[in-house]
Automatic annotation (TrEMBL):
It holds the Pfam family SBP_bac_5. It comes from Pararobbsia silviterrae. Keywords: Signal. GO terms for biological process: microcin transport; peptide transport. Coiled coil: none annotated. This is ABC transporter substrate-binding protein.
Length: 619
C-alpha cells in the first residue's frame, strides 16, 4: 500500500483535525482545549486512560520500515526521504492530542493556553522545564524561529498553505509566545499548537555559520523529543536511544509512554522480504495491510506455539482515502464523464471475493467511518451551502449521495462497462482501429505510477483488463520510492495509487487537499489538481465552522461535491487493524480509540516477560 509518507504534512492534518470549532473562546488560560464542551481530562489529570502509567522502561523495540533508504533527518523539507519516525520521536509541539477523544488537545511544551475572546490570537505559556536535547531551555524565541523557518521557502511548501491565515508569531515575554491570525478561524490555535519546535542551533557550524535549513541532511536535530539518534546506516537501518535527560517524562501527557530504551527500524525493499524477516524473528511487530497475506502467510510453528500473537484490533479511525488518483493537470482526465467511466470499470466486489477474503469494506466517502460522511438526501443546511454552486457542480451533488458502482446482482461489470462506453462517447471518445480514440485519432492511453506494492500491481492489472474492454490502455509503471516521491511532489503522473491520511474532525487540511492554491504548490496534498471555486468555498466552510452543526453541514456538502466529481477511483478500508507481534511485547489493557498501529506500539507498549503479550491479548 503506497501512502504518501510525509511526516509533518500528516502532522498538520492531525492538527487541523483536532478542531474545526472552538465555540466562543473565553479570555482565560487553560491546560487543555476541546472543540465542543470540555476536554475529557480535567486539570490535574495524571495520565491518559489508554496507557499503563507504571509501564516498565527498558529493552529494545525493533520494527520494519517499508522503503529502501533515507537521506536526511529533516522531515520538514521537500526534497529527499526522512529517516523513519524521526518526526514522532525527536520533535515536539506546543500541544498534543489525546487518542481517546477526537477533538481535544493538552499541553506539551506549553503548560498554559490562552485563547483571545475575538479569536484573532492565542497565547502559549511555555513549560519552564522544557529543554532541547542540548540542554537549552525552549523559549518563545525558539518557537517563533521554528514558525518562521517553516514559512520560509526552505521548508516544504505545504506549511505555507496550511499557515496562510496565520499573520505571525511574537514573543510576549520570557515565557509566552503569541500567534495572531488574519481571521478568527476556529482551528488555527490547534494548527499552530501542533507545529514542530526546534532549536536555531540545529545546523550551526563551530564558526557560528549555519547550514541552510533545506540543506540539513544527517546533522542530528536539536529538538525536545524523548529520543536521540544512536546510529544509522541509510540503506539498512536506524536506531534511536531514549534521551536520559528527557525533560517531559513525568508530564501527564507523557507518563506511561515511550517505554523502550531503544527503537530500531530496519529497512526492507518489498513486502515479501519484510514478512519473511518478521517470521524469522528479525523484528518484533508488524501491521499487515494485505488480506491474502494475513490469511495465508501468517501461519506456522511460531504462531501455533504462541511465540507470535496474531490479533485484529478494531479500527475506529476515519478511513484513509485510498484509491487511484487522477491528475487533472493532464487533459485526459479533465472531463467528468471520463472520470466516471473510469470508476465504472473498477470491480471491487470481484477483488474483495477473490483477493481480500472479504476482510475489507468499500470506501464510499471522503470522510468514511465518521459522522462527517454524507448519506441520503442533502439537508436544508447542506443545500444552503451547495445552492450557490448549482451552475458549477454536477446535478448529482444535489440528490441522493452517490453510491459507488457495484457488480453484485442485479448489477454487473458488463452493465457498468456499457454505461462507461456511453459516457466516453458523450465525451468524444469512440472505438475505432483497435482502440478508443478522440476526434483527433489519439488513443486513450495512460500510465499508472506506483512504487511497487505487489497487491496493488495485481489489482491494477485486473483494472487494466477491464479498461481494455473499453479500448483503453493502462500501462503500469513501477519505480523506486525516491523517484516515486519526486514525481508526486512535482505532479508528474497520470494516475497513481495514494493514501490520504484520515482525520477525525475535518478542518483546514481540507483546503490543503482540495484547494485551488494548493493545486499549484509543489509538494502539496492536492495531488489531483482540483481548481474549483465551489470546492474552495466548501473547504473554507469546513475550516471556518464554529458549531458542530455547521461542521456537519459543511463536511457533508464537501463530501457530495468531491464525490460527484469522480476525481478518484476509491478503493477499500479495513474495519480492523491486523497486527502480529512477539509475545514478549506487552500493551495496556485499554485500547485508544484513534490510533495507527506503529505509533501505538512505539508510544505505549513495553517489553515484558515472555508471556506478557499473551496476557495483554486476553484483556
Amino acid at each position: 500500500m503506497n501512502a504518501r509518507l510525509r511526516c509533518f504534512t500528516s502532522l498538520l492534518a492531525v492538527a487541523c483535525a483536532l478542531g474545526a470549532a472552538l465555540g466562543s473562546p473565553a479570555a482565560r488560560a487553560v491546560s487543555g482545549i476541546a472543540q465542543y464542551g470540555a476536554p475529557k481530562y480535567a486539570a490535574g489529570f495524571t495520565h491518559f486512560d489508554y496507557v499503563n502509567p507504571d509501564a516498565p522502561k527498558g529493552g529494545t523495540l525493533t520494527l520494519a520500515n517499508f522503503g529502501s533508504s533515507f537521506d536526511k533527518f529533516n522531515p520538514m523539507t521537500l526534497r529527499g526521504i526522512a529517516a523513519p519516525h524521526v518526526g514522532d520521536l525527536m520533535f515536539e509541539t506546543l500541544i498534543t492530542n489525546s487518542n481517546d477523544e477526537p477533538n481535544s488537545a493538552y499541553g506539551l511544551l506549553a503548560d498554559d493556553i490562552r485563547l483571545a475572546p475575538d479569536g484573532l490570537s492565542v497565547d502559549f505559556h511555555l513549560n519552564p522545564v522544557a529543554r532541547f536535547s542540548n540542554g537549552d531551555r525552549v523559549t518563545p524565541a525558539d518557537v517563533r524561529y521554528s514558525f518562521e523557518m517553516l514559512l520560509s521557502k526552505q521548508a516544504n511548501p505545504a506549511f505555507r498553505v496550511a499557515l496562510a491565515e496565520v499573520k505571525g508569531a511574537e514573543v510576549v515575554d520570557a515565557s509566552t509566545v503569541r500567534f495572531t491570525f488574519s481571521k478568527p478561524r476556529a482551528d488555527l490555535p490547534y494548527v499552530v499548537g501542533e507545529l514542530p519546535v526546534f532549536s536555531p542551533k540545529w545546523g550551526q557550524r563551530p564558526d557560528g555559520s549555519h547550514i541552510a535549513f533545506d540543506k540539513l541532511a544527517f546533522e542530528p536535530p536539536i529538538a525536545s523529543g524523548p529520543y536521540l539518534i544512536d546510529r544509522f546506516e541509510p540503506g539498512r537501518d536506524i536506531s534511536y536511544k531514549r534521551d536520559p535527560n528527557y525533560w517531559g517524562a513525568h508530564l501527564p501527557t507523557r507518563r506511561g509512554m515511550y517505554n523502550f530504551d531503544r527503537i530500531v527500524f530496519k529497512l526492507y525493499g518489498d513486502d515479501v522480504a519484510r514478512l519473511e524477516a518478521f517470521k524469522a524473528g528479525e523484528f518484533d511487530a508488524i501491521a499487515e495491510n494485505r488480506a491474502r497475506s494475513w490469511v495465508r502467510s501468517y501461519t506456522g510453528e511460531r504462531f501455533e506455539r504462541g511465540d507470535i500473537i496474531k490479533q485484529a484490533f478494531p479500527n475506529h479511525n476515519g478511513a484513509n482515502i485510498q484509491g487511484f488518483y487522477m491528475n487533472l493537470r493532464r487533459p485526459l482526465f479533465q472531463d467528468r464523464r471520463v472520470r466516471e467511466a473510469l470508476n465504472l470499470a473498477f470491480d471491487f466486489e470481484w477483488a474483495d471475493r477473490m483477493m481480500f477474503y472479504r476482510l475489507y469494506d468499500r470506501t464510499e466517502s471522503f470522510f468514511m467511518n465518521t459522522d462527517f460522511q454524507a448519506k441520503g438526501m442533502p439537508s436544508a443546511a447542506e443545500l444552503k451551502l451547495l445552492e450557490p454552486w448549482r451552475g458549477e457542480l454536477d446535478a448529482s451533488a444535489f440528490g441522493p449521495m452517490i453510491v459507488q458502482p457495484k457488480t453484485t446482482p442485479p448489477d454487473s461489470l458488463r452493465e457498468n462497462l456499457r454505461k462507461a462506453r456511453a459516457l466516453l462517447a458523450q465525451a468524444g471518445w469512440t472505438y475505432r482501429d483497435g482502440a478508443l480514440r478522440n476526434a483527433a485519432g489519439q488513443p486513450f492511453r495512460f500510465e499508472m505510477l506506483d512504487s511497487g506494492a505487489a497487491l496493488l500491481e495485481q489489482v491494477s492489472s485486473v483494472y487494466a483488463r477491464n479498461l481494455q474492454k473499453l479500448g483503453i490502455t493502462l500501462v503500469f509503471r513501477k519505480t523506486d520510492a525516491a523517484l516515486y516521491q519526486q514525481r508526486l511532489d512535482s505532479f508528474d503522473f497520470d494516475m497513481t495509487t495514494l493514501v490520504m491520511p484520515a482525520v477525525q474532525v475535518p478542518g483546514s487540511e481540507q483546503i490543503e487537499r482540495w484547494g485551488s492554491k494548493a493545486a499549484d504548490t509543489p509538494g502539496s496534498d492536492n495531488m489531483i489538481g482540483i481548481k474549483s471555486p465551489a470546492i474552495d468555498a466548501l473547504a473554507d466552510a469546513v475550516a471556518s465552522a464554529h458549531t458542530q452543526g455547521d461542521l456537519l453541514a459543511a463536511t457533508h456538502a464537501l463530501d457530495r461535491a468531491l464525490t460527484s466529481g469522480w476525481y478518484i477511483v476509491p478503493h477499500w478500508y479495513s474495519p480492523n487493524y491486523l497486527v502480529a507481534y512477539r509475545r514478549e511485547l506487552a500493551r495496556p489493557a485499554t485500547l485508544p480509540l484513534y490510533y495507527a498501529p506503529d505509533g501505538w506500539i512505539i508510544s505505549t507498549w513495553w517489553r515484558g516477560t515472555p508471556d506478557a503479550g499473551a496476557r495483554a491479548a486476553s484483556h
